[in-house]
Design brief:
By secondary structure, the chain is an alpha+beta fold. It folds into 3 domains: 307 residues, no CATH class; 69 residues, DNA polymerase, domain 1 (Orthogonal Bundle); 56 residues, Arc Repressor Mutant, subunit A, CATH 1.10.10. It contains 12 helices and 16 strands. A 9-stranded mixed sheet has the order 2-6-7-10-1-11-12-13-14. Strands 5-4-15 form a 3-stranded antiparallel sheet, with no helix packed on it. A hairpin with a 5-residue loop joins β6 and β7. The longest helix has 32 residues. It is elongated. The N and C termini lie far apart (69 Å). GO terms for molecular function: asparaginyl-tRNA synthase (glutamine-hydrolyzing) activity; ATP binding; glutaminyl-tRNA synthase (glutamine-hydrolyzing) activity.
């Protein structure tokens, strides 16, 4: 009897937030812009137009590669990836193939079983984005219109090895990668704007009963299935999860019939709640890669690498670990604070404000963390110093309320000695009576009074 193991790899495309495009001076902003207004002969692929690489895009790609533990190639070059599609005006895409900027990195994740998994990153390379097709109806006919505002926008691609063994691991990796990119400040990774797009590749391995399950690592590469299905241009983590779950089921059913799934490219249809075939999957040879003749090879010096490496900030995992050690916060609380760099910075600034007047914080650090997390503080509207004052006022008010409630309970117990004596004799129903009397004397929540009355009765 066979069991089935998903084998999943990922290609993640991230648009870099540079001011200009990859090979020309056109503005890189394209979301919500009037179609075909941010274009020029270079990004429209007109004859005679020559590309000039965007230095900032190259540096940011190296920055991401370093943050992912990659080896940066001293020599790198651009290649032409040849294919024909209406959103590709030149008939080829300038990308990187044989000598990408960064190779052999990794990203550590923790799956739902709390297992630490090291996902190998094969390459981080730089290319230009394509145009965008808009499907509409004109004069009763379904047509597609091409908007080339996006054509030529710097696009970094992060390619993993097929190391994922569950949908959950894919989800954890994607969310962690998104946080790292945002911490670096090189992209907003706004899924709804298309600045982060996901392309999982999945196949299903048949594992004979009693044999070892598939793991990640080079020792198992030779056992990989001889087909794969690529899911194109998925723009949300939720859709990626649903598409992969659907494919696992679809491909498993095919294998159970003794057949092999077709190697192809498929897309996700939210309306059908299913993946749909787009085209047969190309091999790398189909793209007829060759070196881009209009762009000289790049040489990255050690001095340049050192400068770029210094730009890497404290990343989410390291920040969370420091919060646990420095502020004695739980791992869960620290992770929540470190989710967003601006929130983490705000938290630290608030702590500084609390410590400013005295070595002992005016309010416990855990209170600062909980207020930011639970009350969802608008960090753009409330200054860190104002937050500390809000917490202090709240604690003072709470202390006054507790003092007032204590007075009321003492008074009610004094006015109802028989009820108190009945409680001592085991008549627990009098608790409700005492709570009711207290409720009439003060503006407190019932749960708050109940807790205080029961505590007081235990000590009489």
């Amino acid at each position: 009897m066979n069991t089935y193991q998903p084998i999943i790899g990922l290609e993640v495309h991230v648009e870099l937030a540079t001011k200009s495009k990859m090979f020309c001076g056109c503005p890189a902003e394209h979301f919500g812009i009037e179609p075909n207004t941010h274009t020029c002969p270079v990004c429209l692929g007109l004859p005679g137009a020559l590309p000039v690489p965007n230095r900032k895009a190259v540096e940011w790609t190296i920055l991401l590669g370093l943050a992912l533990g990659c080896q940066i190639n001293e020599h790198s070059k651009f290649d032409r990836k040849n294919y024909f599609y209406p959103d590709l005006p030149k008939g080829y895409q300038i990308s990187q193939y044989e000598e990408p900027l960064a190779i052999n990195g990794s990203l550590e994740i923790r799956n739902s079983k709390s297992e630490i998994r090291n996902i190998r990153i094969r390459r981080v390379h730089l290319e230009e984005d394509t145009g965008k097709l808009q499907h509409t109806t004109v004069n009763g006919k379904d047509i597609s219109l091409a908007d080339f505002n996006r054509s030529g926008v710097p696009l970094v691609e992060i390619v993993t090895e097929p190391d994922f063994r569950s949908v959950d691991e894919v989800d954890q990796y994607l969310k962690k990668l998104q946080k790292i990119v945002r911490y670096l400040g090189i992209s907003g990774t706004d899924m709804e704007k298309g600045s982060m797009r996901l392309e999982p590749s999945i196949s299903i391995a048949q594992i004979a009963k009693h044999s070892r399950s598939y793991k990640h690592g080079k020792d198992f590469e030779h056992k990989l299935p001889d087909y794969r299905v690529e899911l194109k241009n998925i723009n949300s983590f939720r859709f990626a999860r649903k598409a992969l779950e659907y494919e696992i089921q679809r491909q498993t059913e095919i294998l159970e019939k003794g057949e092999t799934p077709t190697q192809q490219t498929r897309g996700w249809s939210e309306a059908k709640n299913a993946t749909i075939p787009q085209r047969e999957k190309e091999g790398e040879s189909d793209y007829r890669y060759f070196p881009e003749p209009d762009i000289p090879p790049l040489r990255i010096s050690n001095e340049q690498l050192a400068i770029i490496n210094k730009q890497i900030p404290e990343l989410p995992d390291a920040k969370s670990t420091r919060f646990q050690k420095e502020f004695s916060l739980t791992e869960h609380t620290s992770n929540l604070l470190a989710e967003d760099k601006s929130v983490a910075d705000y938290f630290e600034e608030a702590v500084k404000n609390s410590l400013a007047a005295s070595p002992s914080p005016l309010t416990p650090i855990i209170d600062v963390a909980n207020w930011i997390i639970n009350k969802k503080i608008d960090i753009n509207q409330t200054l860190p110093a104002e937050l500390i004052q809000q917490i202090l006022r709240s604690k003072q008010s709470s202390q006054i309320d507790e003092s007032e409630l204590e007075k009321i309970i003492v008074q009610v117990f004094a006015e109802n000695p028989k009820a108190v004596e009945d409680y001592k004799k085991g008549k627990l129903q009098v608790v409700g009576y005492l709570i009711g009397v207290c409720l009439k004397k003060g503006n407190f929540h019932q749960a708050q009074i109940k807790e205080a009355v029961e505590k007081k009765l235990r000590n009489v």
